[in-house]
Amino acid sequence: MPATPVRDSSLFSAENEENRTDKNVHPTEEMEETDFLKIATPEEIRLCDPAVGSGHMLTYAFDLLVLIYEEQGYAPADIPALILRHNLFGLEICPRAAQLTELALVFKAREKSHRFFQSEHFVRPNIIELQNIGFADMET
User: Fold this and answer.
1) Could you tell me which of 82, 77, 81, 76 has the C-alpha nearest to residue 41?
2) Do 105 and 55 form a contact (C-beta atoms < 8 A)?
C-alpha cells in the first residue's frame, strides 16, 4: 500500500500569516470595476458548443436568449430566427447527433413562433458536422 503524504496542518491554519486569505485586497465600493463584457444588442452574444451531442446546452441557451430578446423589446415572432442566425453555433462529429441538434433547435423555434416554418422566417441552425480528415505523410 503506497504511503499517503502527510500535510502540515499549520499551512492551512488561521495562525499561519503567510497563507491567510483575509489579508488579500478585496474590492471595495470605491474601486471601479472595468472588466465587463459590453454588449449593445443581443445579436452580439455568441455561444458555440464544440460537442453538441443532442443539443441540450444549445436548447437551454435558446430559452435564455428568448428571455433576453423579449427583455430588449424585440418582436416575439422574429426572436427565434434572430437567435438561430446570430447567437447559437455548434460542432459535432456524429452526423446523427448534428441532425438531432438541428431538429431540437427547429422545434424550439417553432414552439416560440408559429410562423417559423414560413420561408421568410425560417433559418437553418448553425450546426457543423465535422468529418474525418486524413493527412498525407508529408503534411503532418
Assistant:
1) 82
2) yes
